[in-house]
Amino acid sequence: MTLAERLERYLTRYWDTPTEVSNLSRIPGGASRETYRFDALVKGQTRPLILRRDPPGSLIDTDRRLEFLAFQSFHGRAPVPEPIVLEAEGTELERPFFIMSRVDGGAAASPFTVDPYGEHAQAIGEAFFGALGAIAAVDPSELPLGAAAASPDPAECWRVALDEWAGVIEADEQHPQPIVRAAIRRLRRAPPPPPVAVRVVHGDYRTGNFLHDGQGKILALLDWEMAHIGDPLEDLAWAIDPLWSHYDTARVAGMLPRAEALDIWSRTSGLPVDAAALAWWELFSAVKGQAIWTSAAREYRDGGFKDPVLAISGWYTARRHDEILAERLMRLEGLS
Q1: How many Cα atoms occupy the beta-carbon half-sphere of 293 within 13 Å?
Q2: Beta pairing partners, 99
Q3: Domain-located, residue 38
Q4: Which of 24, 45, 107, 303 is geometrically suited to a Cys-Cys bond with 38, CB 3.0 to 4.6 A?
């Protein structure tokens, strides 16, 4: 039975009415879920939908339930697609999955293109950092995600995050990595001040993980698979990491001058940007990135899952984050 036929059978049962699936195709990329677009004809109406299914191997292991709850939490509060249904067992489609509405007519910029936003970079940057601030403005206790996700003590946010990603490196590295090890020691030696409040952290908020209309409007914020509760500066630091700058040294994320981006985030979130805390989380971001790329390299080499995304992640992005780590360590130690 084909995947389309399995989908038809499942949706017919779920909606309790005959459903036809057409135009099923896989969307390239997607390092933690297989992503498919399709149309469902139900009760005479065509519904554009997205299927997110666990792959046989993955760049990172993530909690699909928390991802689904993140969509539930922010649909209607931000440009976030509507979640439809989550199947944690996934028997009918062979692996766990969830289905959500599809947003058509948008484009996602590759992190490896130069100046992808052109004359609309300013408008997209204002929307991008404004939306991130809006996420950080919401008390997690008001959200479905907040009821399900662990909520660390503010003073422990850094430790929880660092322990997680340092553990990934420990488990998956296949050769010595002295630069990231030095960064981890530096982070443990000088923890950041705690956040004013814990908030929902998207976990992978960056260029390439949203759709825009090519005219300066963000249509959909995607890829919530690493969503959790923590220090909101974690998201801000990841969003401005040089890896996502599109080779633009004057603008963060290839969109806005750094000071302007931070100001928009602070005004929208209602939270301060502590310089020392942000510097800690910026160094952490490169450690987190290196952990993801280390895991990708191991999965590609040993896991039998030969997605080119994993190969590129374990090579180019890993080397770039080594450079970023070295530059930041030298600056923090007063050597540059």
Answers
A1: 21
A2: 51, 85
A3: yes
A4: 24
